[in-house]
Amino acid sequence: MHTLDPFDLFDISAQLSEEELMIRASVARFVDEKALPLMAECFDQGRFPAELIPEIADLGLLGSSLEGYGCAGLNAVSYGLICQELERGDSGLRSFVSVQSSLCMYPIHAFGSDEQKEHWLPDMAAGKVIGCFGLTEPHGGSDPANMKTHARRDGDDWIINGAKMWITNGNLAHIAIVWARTDEGILGFIVPTDTPGFEAREIHAKMSLRASVTSELYFDNVRVPDANRLPGVKGLKGPLSCLSQARYGITWGPIGSALACLKEAIDYTADRELFGRALAANQAVQIRLADMSRRITQAQLMSLRLGRLKDEGRVHPTQISMAKWNNVRMALDIARDCRDLLGGSGITLEYVAIRHMLNLESVITYEGTETVHQLVVGRELTGVNAF
To answer: Pick the catalytic residue: 87, 367, 370, 380?
Structure first.
């Protein structure tokens, strides 16, 4: 019998096209050669490796699933594989690309005017303009309908007041996609971050996503022209559709974190000797590693099927919720267990498990907490809204 790939026991790679395999390999090479040498230090220092942005853009990873405007036009599975490999490096890398692509470029592409698309998307794809997504508010959390940020018409302009919280890329961004309540319903606006009255304050002292920029945004009579309003959508459908795009990528990302932790644990337990034999020779260790592999395989199969459904135009938000819930929980549990297998060594940044473990505490919370996604699935099963 042939030997199985320990990180792809069900030969999921055989279900990928040549293009998908090539994309995965190119991003993996970037992560191995350029990102991983920096990530422990960046996490320790609490800084995002902005020096990697030009190469991320050169690889076509920004807006990769969009058509035109300098974007690569890749399929959903390819985008998922990009997220998987980036998060194998660090959740902060995947978060940066996810926000730029799914939360900022996507709404301009889907809901923007032709002028907005032509003006912003080519430079965003090239990494020359960075965006952030202003939806979550300090008091709002999982209830975006409880939005307090508001915009009012003033002639041909809009005046925006309010605040947003937990905003990835906030202090890196040149523009913010801001969702605000108006007399006409919830609308989206493109707000250049150098607009008077706009302020971004970076959130420090984080114990998670330390290699990512997280900010608070404040709007004090921020004036933008009506030309900056996204004309193609009204209501919560706009921001929620953006979140569905990003959550889809998140179903793949934690698979990368889990694979990184499993590989490290396999290598460590093979080399580490206690009581006269390698840790890997113990039944308890093998059972734990085998369970990790089982759960990773389930997540791989779920995300691949989800990606194929998305490419067929048949994906449902509930399916994305189930995969986000399952796959992030899988990765967080595996990261914690791998950290334990490493013993005292597992608490240092010399090893990846503690970094992934801490990052995944954010991933399981943002873009819908685990409980929210459980309730989405429960609503689908029962027809009763328990929110």
So the answer is: 367
Verify that 120 and 39 share a domain, yes or no.
yes
DSSP 127-162: TSS-EEEE---TTTTT-TTS---EEEEETTEEEEEE
Tell me the average confidence (pLDDT) per consecutive run of 10 residues in the chain, 387 residues long: 90 97 98 98 98 98 97 98 98 98 98 98 98 92 87 97 97 98 97 98 97 98 98 94 95 98 98 94 98 98 98 97 98 98 96 98 95 96 95
The answer on 202 and 120 residing in a single domain is no
Q: Residue 140: what pLDDT? A: 77
For residue 362, the Cα-to-chain-centroid distance in whole angstroms is 10
10 to 7, 128, 180, 295, 331: CA distances (angstroms)? 9, 40, 46, 12, 18
**Among 228, 251, 276, which residue terminates a domain?**
228
Task: Tell me what pLDDT residue 24 has.
Answer: 98
What is the C-alpha to C-alpha distance for residues 387 and 375, in angstroms, rounded to an integer?
7
The tokens of 367 are what?
A: 């873009």
Tokens of 277: 């034999």
CA angle (352, 358, 362) in 5-degree steps: 130
211 within a domain of the structure (yes/no):
yes
d(CA 170, CA 131): 8
User: Which residue range is the domain that position 363 belongs to?
Assistant: 237-382
- Helix axes of 237-271 and 283-311: crossing angle, nearest 10 degrees: 150
Question: Looking at the 3D structure of the chain, how many domains does it have?
Answer: 3
Residue 203 lies in a domain: yes
Asked if 367 is an active-site residue, the reply is yes
Same-domain check for residues 272 and 316: yes
Residue 302 lies in a domain: yes
DSSP string, 191-217: EETTSTTEEEEE--S-SSSTTS-EEEE
For residue 208, give the CATH number of its domain.
2.40.110.10
Domain CATH code at residue 313? 1.20.140.10
One domain for residues 369 and 259: yes
Q: What size, in residues, is the chain?
A: 387
Per-residue model confidence (pLDDT) at position 86: 98
Q: How far apart are CA 110 and CA 368, in angstroms?
A: 22
How far apart, in Å, are the Cα atoms of 282 and each of 94, 115, 278? 35, 63, 8
3-state secondary structure of 332: helix
pTM of the model: 0.96
